[in-house]
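Hi Y.,

Following your request, here is the sequence exactly as I used it, all 88 residues.
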Amino acid sequence: MTARGSSSRTYYPMRRGVAVTSDYLSVHGEQYDLRELADVRRSGSWELWGTYRGEVVPLWASRDETEFGQVCRALQRALEAHRDEVKY
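Below is the corresponding structure, written out as tokens. Let me know if you'd prefer a different format.
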């Protein structure tokens, strides 16, 4: 559930083990709660990194440029929406 009590929104539906919702990033069964994810950035050749629970961690990587771009955009939109919602 989101801060306002509405259902979770899907920004990138589960494909090849990756999904992005308004609540989390899911990568091959590992879920990263957006409330605890910060400083998300692209690095190297199609790698996505972020700070999760105070530690810098590799979040996900793909050799597919199109897929990588779609997941990055979805995660960016989800993080922006999540932050806007929490502020009221």
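The chain has one domain: 10-87.

Thanks again,
Q.
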